Amino acid sequence: MRTIEWKDGIVVSIDQSALPEKEIWLEMKSCAEVAAAIRDMKIRGAPLIGVAAAYALALTAHYSEAKTKEAFLEEIERSADMLRKTRPTAVNLFWAIERILNKVKGAAGDVEALRKLVIDEAQRIADEDAEVNRKIGEYGSKLIEDGDTVLTHCNAGRLATVEYGTALAIVRAAREEGKRIKVIATETRPKLQGSRLTVYELMRDGIPVTLITDNMVGYVMFKGMVDKVIVGADRVVRDAVINKIGTYTIAVLAHEHSIPFYVAAPLSTFDLKAFARDVVIEERSPEEVTCIGAVRIAPPNVNVLNPAFDITPIKYVDAIICEIGVLDKRQFEKLCECKGDV
Ligand code: MRU
Fold first, then answer.
1. How high is the pLDDT of residue 106?
2. Could you say which of 272, 284, 290, 303 would form a disulfide bridge with 298 (CB–CB 3.0 to 4.6 Å)?
3. Which structural domain range is residue 295 located in?
């Protein structure tokens, strides 16, 4: 089963906030329900957020009672606005919304034709995500040697995408080719996507994984236990990769230990008109830092800083793996120069 699916007017997606204790499948019938699931991180991970936003617009289209094209487009615009306010950093969200709006705004036909257009485009976005992840796996696995231990951060796996994953797609593809790969997963404070999600999905697939806390990365690298780092991304800009908080620290440590640091991300995560300074880094609630689960671990009223994403300068990234291949620094620069609007 895919992480998210359209089932004739219902969007079905696994509730990632309940994992690994409970496997709950959300059944959503309105854009507002999907928007809430994204905001509450029941649906999370850049590519999945994009697909969810597309399906949310499909729900608006499916249930619209608009009689005129203008009224229909207004409803879609209102839903798009609601979705844009859910989370600011992952560009896939905005990319998917704009792709659907562009398609439907310029289209000819009556309300029925537009309704179909939105739903079909949302489905196409979901199917493409699945295809693109297979390609990322295919290209990325060439970088992996038999016996490698790959360190990953956060969850850039099946759960963060429609299926297969981005960073974990490479691990999966290498395993499918018969390479004996092990993974070290950081727990990823404060929301614990590593311990709750990455470990869960790798163990289910029988892929050997060892869990560490975020502050053990230096130790495992010093001990020679890491051959490669592969992480995902929420936004790739001209001068940096924006990914889960903690990524920058890992990249600098990898550089110090001469360990290749790779980023796996689809082109829908590229925002090549922007620089790091243009990106809104999501700040989340202090309770995520002052508590672990329901247990408070800090004094009340302490000042807290809780940025959800890190900015890793491009100089620390050895290559970016996307659906068109493995881009080294020079190729990435070229892409920035000639395709500022990928
Ligand atoms: O806050 P999250 O869990 O949505 O953050 C997700 C990440 O940082 C992932 O690494 C990124 O979205 C890539 S997922 C393929």
1. 86
2. 290
3. 141-337
Active-site residues, by number, are: 234
Give the C-alpha separation, 174 to 141, whole Å.
Answer: 5
Percentage, residues of the chain above pLDDT 70: 99
| Count of domains observed in the chain | 2
Indicate if 156 and 130 belong to the same structural domain: no
DSSP letter for 27, please.
E
Mean pLDDT for the stretch of residues 214-219? 98
286 domain residue, yes or no:
yes
Average pLDDT for 18-41: 98
CB 223 within 8 A of CB 199: no
Probe target for ligand 1 pocket from 44, 170, 268, with the most ligand atoms within 8 Å of CB: 44
The residue among 101, 134, 167 that closes a domain is 134
Query: Does residue 340 have a pLDDT over 80?
Result: no
Is residue 342 in some structural domain? no
Write down the pTM of the prediction.
Answer: 0.97
Instruction: Identify the residue whose C-alpha is closest to ligand 1 atom 10.
Output: 232
Question: Which H/E stretch holds residue 4?
Answer: strand 4-6
Return the best residue to mutate from 162, 244, 285 for the ligand 1 pocket (most ligand atoms within 8 A of CB). Answer: 244
User: What is the CA(234)–ligand 1 centre distance, in A?
Assistant: 6
CATH code at position 285:
3.40.50.10470
Cα–Cα distance for residue pair 107/149, rounded to 1 Å? 50
Residue 49 shares a structural domain with residue 154: no
